UniProtKB/TrEMBL annotation:
This is C2H2-type domain-containing protein. GO terms for molecular function: DNA-binding transcription factor activity, RNA polymerase II-specific; sequence-specific double-stranded DNA binding; zinc ion binding. GO terms for cellular component: nucleus. Pfam families: zf-C2H2. Residues 8-35 form the C2H2-type domain. Keywords: Metal-binding, Repeat, Zinc, Zinc-finger. InterPro entries: Znf_C2H2_sf, Znf_C2H2_type. It comes from Cryptotermes secundus.
Length: 61
């Protein structure tokens, strides 16, 4: 059985992380910071969003 006391759960979607930093990073997905303004796909990092915009939509930011 997993020890859930050592994990950090997102209070918005319930996703569980092992590190508080990962949870903080993940929270940006809910604030819209990493959401693609074109297709509304949500990335876990701002860097991924920049790559996504460039590759998918040819947008350089
Ligand atoms: Zn979440
Ligand atoms: Zn997109």
């Amino acid at each position: 059985m997993k020890d859930l006391t050592k994990t950090f759960a997102c209070e918005v979607c319930g996703k569980v992380f092992k590190h508080p930093d990962s949870l903080r990073q993940h929270h940006k997905a809910h604030t819209g910071e990493t959401k693609c303004p074109v297709c509304y796909m949500v990335m876990s990092r701002k860097y991924e969003l920049r790559v996504h915009l460039r590759k998918r939509h040819n947008i350089i930011q």
